[in-house]
Design goal:
Strand content of chain A: over 45%
Shape of chain B: globular
Distance between the termini of chain A: 36 Å
Number of strands of chain B: 11
Distance between the termini of chain B: 41 Å
Number of helices of chain B: 0
Largest sheet of chain A: 7 strands, mixed
Number of helices of chain A: 0
Helix content of chain A: under 10%
Order of helices and strands of chain B: EEEEEEEEEEE
Strand content of chain B: over 45%
Structural class of chain A: mainly beta
Helix content of chain B: under 10%
Oligomer: heterodimer
Chain lengths: 113, 112
């Protein structure tokens, strides 16, 4: 089991550019979560999906952020246009509902200059 | 609303026990978790406890839950330098498919 796979591991982009972060959950897991981690705010839940359906996106900062889960094995988090304050580590996590355990990916460190 | 709080920092000597504390406010929490994050890495699930349990032990780790006081602790016996990391407490409401709310993390520093 390769675990939750995120790509890229690091992304440096210029302000105003579009950024797409990718996540492949563990096969068989039916819940997927996107978190953002910063020094100032700690870990924040951005959005989560159950069976590919977005359940709670109240943590998405603003309209510049969007997330999709077109199938059970893939999700994207897009920021357009990106701003320096979006710089953070973005984590994806997945779980099988009822199993009691969440598995996190290694994260994508985003730097917007 | 949900709120999970932890102290920011803990320093111990190698070989001592570490106790990391956490308080939460939502009495309908069903699962409570401890995660470990090493520098530059993702969060690693250490252990979790169901809300109807008082204690769970897993090798060097002991989780204690006081549901009345909404207090959770993680005890690490015989703390090693490799245990130096940030430890996050988290709670989930309902079944495990629902979202986790994390505390701010406790940075554990283990001195040789």
């Amino acid at each position: 089991d390769a675990g939750v796979i995120q790509s890229p591991r690091h992304e440096v982009t210029e302000m105003g550019q579009e950024v797409t972060l990718r996540c492949k959950p563990i096969s068989g897991h039916n819940s997927l979560f996107w978190y953002r981690q910063t020094m100032m705010r700690g870990l924040e839940l951005l959005i989560y999906f159950n069976n590919n359906v977005p359940i709670d996106d109240s943590g998405m900062p603003e309209d510049r952020f969007s997330a999709k889960m077109p199938n059970a094995s893939f999700s994207t988090l897009k920021i357009q246009p990106s701003e320096p304050r979006d710089s953070a580590v973005y984590f994806c996590a997945s779980t099988l509902e009822g199993s009691g355990g969440y598995t996190f990916g290694s994260g994508t460190r985003l730097t917007v200059v | 609303g949900e709120d999970v709080e932890q102290s920011l920092f803990l320093s111990v000597r190698e070989g001592d026990s570490s106790v990391i504390n956490c308080t939460y406010t939502d009495s309908s929490s069903t699962y409570l978790y401890w995660y470990k994050q090493e520098p530059g890495a993702g969060l690693q699930l250490l252990t979790y406890i169901f809300s109807n349990m008082d204690m769970k032990q897993d090798q060097r780790l002991t989780v204690l839950l006081n549901k009345k006081d909404k207090h959770l602790s993680l005890r690490i016996a015989d703390t090693q330098t490799g245990d130096s990391a940030i430890y996050f407490c988290a709670e989930s409401i309902g079944n495990a498919g629902n979202m986790l709310t994390f505390g701010g993390g406790t940075r554990l520093m283990v001195k040789p």
